[in-house]
Predict the 3D structure of the following.
Amino acid sequence: MLIVIAGTATEIGKTWCATQLAQALRGSGVRVSARKPAQSFDPSDTTTDADELAAATGEAASSVCPLHRWYRVPMAPPMAADALGAPSFTLADLVAEIEPSDADVMLIETAGGVRSPLADDGDTVELCDLVRPDLVILVADAGLGTIHAVRSSSDALGRHPQLVWLNRLDPNDTLHARNRAWLQTRCGLDVVTDGEAALERIDALLSR
């Protein structure tokens, strides 16, 4: 099974959700791998997304993200590559570089929001068009602006099966609770708020 971990924006918690899901999958006996086709980050960061994903899956960080796709500038990957004077790259390049795995589930975490550039010629939506995931998990904030962000991102991903993960949801926060209810009842979206619920959805897909 191939699952893309996407987000409504940057710094939304995609990596945290991906690591939580990877750990839950492994805990249930499912073999899981994680891939980050390209990553950009601040040179002062002590760890990268690839490091955290590798720790969660037991893989090498260089398997999660090829070392030549580590860009030490906090910009969208193709912009970071340009700023560093590195060669440009396409979505096809990124897909071709995804290291194969015999895992039951492969997670591919993208960068930024679904319309943030991943390569010179495309974004997360267009990457999904290429890899055709079994599921896209759309990670979103739970607070002000959530409904617009989720609907806009979900519409862009419309052709792909989706699960919305409202990260950092506080059940005691009225706005958070209302946002969740609106997305479920008014928008008809499948919404979860933790790794256990996400795992239940994935188990259902695996058992088909």
